[in-house]
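Duplicate of #3305? Posting structure anyway:
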């Protein structure tokens, strides 16, 4: 199949493909998603097949309005407050669904489903024109970093999906915050740009322990890393910039080509001969560039080790570190013991 690229002038054609049960990738403010008619189990199955995603991992239902959610789920007063405050935006809300409202293919057999109304106006137009919600997992092969640019999506899916709606690179760079509103207190299952500090004035305290990555752990064998956001090289987290020269010496001693992913300031201390990828100036640019950086190293497959700079796990830094630690399988550089 030839993957067609659509834009604002051809968004109606993209919507027609969704109505026809095809898969169309779409932009959001966080990462690109793989869209298909959420009311058509056969269409949703094509998304699992394209991503090689395990069938028990439920899909997000992506909507163009809160009214669309009301057709499928119970919107509690607290959930309505969240929608009013943060939608459209990078917050995915888990709600109890109405009996038999959604296919098991979408929910993974759960009585709940995750709903998200993205900021991207073109994507919302596509959903509105299609007249139905679309499933929206991140547009990456299962286990790989999420796609934040059209080139990433085509790298993973060219020829395997019917189309992609092109609206340039995504802004945030990591996926939405996922909040479970079916438990008390509400629980953040995945940190994102919408932080507990932003949620508190709207719905009070939320539980955050379900996504905690834990304190510094001893390095684990590369084979033990979880397959999530993982490039083919082993990522090693550099917690302290002051350890850079020790970490470079350690990486060199491993006898394999290695690279560094860090902010511009730290990169000034990395020898020019070392492959490096800039995370920009701060946690915001680092989050924006993280998945693109991990994918850049996959295009240079001789590199076997990537030293990647850490940020304090606060605010957006919690989302950045959650993804980075998963991509590293929790492997940290430690000054002693390596
Ligand atoms: O920013 C995003 O959320 C992107 C863009 C494309 O919208 N989408 C995204 O989808 O990241 P996905 O499928 O890659 O991640 C959704 C997460 C998964 O970890 C999934 O297990 C979880 O949400 N999830 C979905 N439905 C759930 C449910 N009913 N209960 C608990 N977790 C759920
Ligand atoms: Mg994903």
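Output from current build:
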């Amino acid at each position: 199949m030839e993957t067609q690229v659509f834009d604002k002038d051809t968004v109606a054609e993209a919507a027609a493909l969704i109505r026809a049960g095809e898969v169309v990738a779409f932009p959001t403010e966080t990462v690109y998603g793989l869209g298909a008619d959420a009311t058509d189990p056969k269409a949703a199955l094509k998304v699992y097949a394209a991503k090689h995603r395990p069938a028990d991992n439920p899909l997000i239902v992506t909507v163009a309005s809160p009214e669309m959610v009301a057709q499928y789920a119970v919107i509690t007063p607290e959930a309505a407050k969240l929608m009013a405050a943060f939608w459209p935006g990078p917050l995915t809300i888990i709600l109890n669904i109405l009996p038999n409202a959604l296919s098991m293919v979408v929910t993974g057999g759960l009585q709940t489903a995750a709903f998200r109304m993205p900021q991207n106006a073109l994507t919302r137009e596509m959903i509105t024109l299609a007249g139905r919600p679309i499933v929206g997992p991140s547009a990456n092969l299962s286990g790989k970093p999420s796609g934040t640019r059209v080139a990433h999506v085509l790298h993973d899916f060219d020829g395997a999906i019917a189309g992609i709606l092109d609206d340039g690179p995504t802004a945030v760079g990591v996926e939405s915050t996922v909040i479970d509103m079916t438990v008390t207190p509400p629980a953040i299952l995945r940190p994102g740009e919408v932080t507990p500090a932003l949620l508190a004035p709207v719905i009070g305290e939320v539980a955050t322990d379900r996504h905690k990555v834990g304190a510094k752990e001893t390095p684990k064998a590369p084979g033990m890393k979880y397959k999530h956001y993982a490039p083919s090289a082993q990522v090693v987290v550099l917690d302290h910039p002051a350890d850079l020269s020790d970490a470079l010496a350690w990486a060199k001693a491993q006898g394999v080509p290695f690279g560094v992913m860090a902010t511009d300031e730290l990169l000034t201390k990395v020898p020019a001969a070392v492959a490096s990828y800039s995370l920009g100036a701060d946690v915001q640019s680092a989050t924006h560039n993280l998945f693109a950086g991990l994918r850049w190293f996959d295009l240079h497959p001789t590199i076997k080790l990537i030293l990647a700079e850490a940020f304090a796990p606060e605010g957006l830094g919690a989302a950045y570190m959650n993804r980075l630690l998963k991509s590293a399988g929790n492997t940290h550089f430690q000054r002693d013991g390596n």
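Confirmed duplicate; merging threads. Residues 28, 30-31, 33, 57-60, 90, 92, 94, 110, 112-114, 116, 118, 136-138, 175-176, 178, 189 surround threonylcarbamoyladenylate (ligand 1) (CB under 6 Å). The first strand starts at residue 4 and ends at 6.
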